[in-house]
Amino acid sequence: MVEREIPEQYLEGYARLLADVAATGRRLTRDELSARRALGERAAEAGYGMRALVRAHLSAARTAWPRGNASVDDALAAVQQAVDAFAEGYERAQRLAVRQEVAARREFIDDLLYGRSDLGRLAERAERFGLRLSHAHAVAVARGPAAYDEGDAVPRQVERALIARFGDRHVLLSTKDGRLLCIAPGHQKEMLTVFAKQAHAATDGGQVAIGRAHSGPGGVVQSYKEALSALEIAERLELDDPVLHAADLLVYPVLARDRQAMTDLVHHALGPLTKARGGARPLLDTLTAYFDSGCVAAEAARRLSLSVRALTYRLERIHKLTGANPADPAQRYMLQTAVIGARLLGWPADGE
Fold this sequence. Notes:
It is a single chain. The chain has helices at 14-24, 30-45, 50-63, 72-114, 119-128, 153-166, 189-202, 216-237, 251-257, 259-270, 281-292, 297-304, 308-322, 329-345, and strands at residues 136-143, 172-176, 179-185, 207-210, 214-215, 243-245. The chain is an alpha+beta fold. Strands 1, 2, 3, 4, 5 and 6 form a 6-stranded mixed β-sheet that branches. The N and C termini lie far apart (70 Å).
């Protein structure tokens, strides 16, 4: 790519300044430094590269290099001061541009996820960030041991990895409520897979949930909510999978949709466990381990650090209290559904 030629306006007064300083031995004044900073800001806003600007300054210095008895040291000091002030203004403009970009992206994310803008305007703003809201998109959400903000090292590390792999095409990364957020085209599943891998590593083993792909602006919101729901379900059910797919967890929102019915089932099927010595928790943990291990007694006993005999005793105790046999396929489904419901509802509470 051919670099643009630097216009003379960004070197305004530079040669005259160099000659005067070299002849008098003075340092640049505050106003002169301020003027160089202002030129640096304007050059940054115009989109000129820093390397080309420095090269233009050095070239101008060679052309206007003082002759005769002028001090070389003073001339070099003037070049250093002028370029340093120019670079300071350039960097200040760059930092401001980055902050404005971050603020615009955060505002867009908020409006997109909370519907605070009309759809036409939202679609126009989405184009700026590489999203075409008429197409299907999926959202991945990553959480780690800490809350993350836009400028933190972790989001920048994940973003660099994605850009290195896919460029900046049609994928948007941001943060929301301390979590990392990635919006990608629904057919580009590899993008979300790579995001999940990078986010898991960058957050020291954090957990990532991926929503299903949906079309339109409302589809982004729906996918985002599915990802959040998957993280919430994983927390309640103590699922430790590094990557969760909302499509694989659809049964849990269905079960929790009628909260009153689920509460009734939990109390009816598992309520008698509260009469056991030590409360319901040990026996509920036994059922959880038993079902999670595919109803294999030896594996369930290993997970609970029990002997198979002790586990069998607990299962018999559960059968006696509830009237339902966990080992009986005909009765297992009700108990297993009730166990899932108990975990979703946080039952039993402390002391039960």
